[in-house]
Design goal:
Layout: H1 12-42, E1 50-60, E2 65-72, E3 79-81, E4 93-105, E5 112-120, E6 132-140, E7 151-156, E8 160-165, E9 188-189, E10 191-192, H2 194-203
Parallel strand pairs: 1-7
Antiparallel strand pairs: 1-4, 2-3, 2-5, 5-6, 6-10, 7-8, 8-9
């Protein structure tokens, strides 16, 4: 003798209907969940970085002749500039723009570049090359905004240098219209590279 409760065949159609109804409900609810919570789900997603091309220029507030300079670093920030005359009565010497260097967006803190430049304190004495030296420094790129106007290297007396990406702000850190002060945190002391200096002097003998 069988009873209704012990006969599994009697309940299989109902189970199938319940499963179909549950699946339909899930298909309806899940897309609505995604639409409702899309902003929250993507809030922590990192912004895609973009690299823009920018020109390279230089300013020279020092009494020394800058023969050339270059920078290298992460995120496409590799480039260099030409010779810059020493500072004069009318202001700093200035190098013409060279193309190009990568300027990444957005700016990231503690972006470090390796800088190298050739400095000559006896630029017009072609017999004495003792002051024609290669200097190096590790520089940090100050913060810049979304609108940029090229990369600058600024040389000060005492073999000091600063780099910046000009962005039009007037906070005293990214303005090429303002000479960096001695307490500027981004001003770095250059160090003589003996090996590179020896090769440089031999090349011009």
């Amino acid at each position: 003798m069988t009873t209704e409760s012990s006969n599994p065949k009697r309940y299989r159609p109902w189970l199938a209907v319940l499963m179909l109804l549950g699946g339909a409900a899930a298909l309806t609810v899940f897309p609505n969940y995604l639409l409702t919570n899309f902003a929250a789900l993507t809030a922590d997603a990192p912004a895609k970085e973009k690299i823009y091309a920018g020109g390279v220029r230089g300013l020279n507030y020092s009494p020394d002749y800058i023969h050339s300079f270059s920078v290298s670093g992460p995120r496409g920030m590799n480039g260099g500039g030409g010779n810059i005359l020493r500072a004069g009565k009318n202001g700093p010497g200035e190098a013409g723009e060279r193309c190009c260097i990568g300027i990444p967006q957005p700016w990231q803190p503690d972006t470090q570049l390796q800088m190298k430049w050739e400095r000559d304190r006896k630029a017009y004495d072609y017999k004495d090359r003792s002051e024609f030296e290669v200097l190096t420094a590790t520089v940090v790129v100050p913060e810049y905004g979304p609108n940029t106007y090229g990369f600058w290297a600024i040389f000060l007396p005492g073999d000091r240098v600063k780099v910046m990406v000009m962005d039009g702000n007037a906070n005293g850190r990214n303005s090429v219209m303002t000479k960096p002060t001695d307490d500027d945190p981004f001003l770095v002391q250059g160090i003589r590279d003996d090996a590179l200096t020896k090769k440089l002097q031999e090349r011009y003998r």
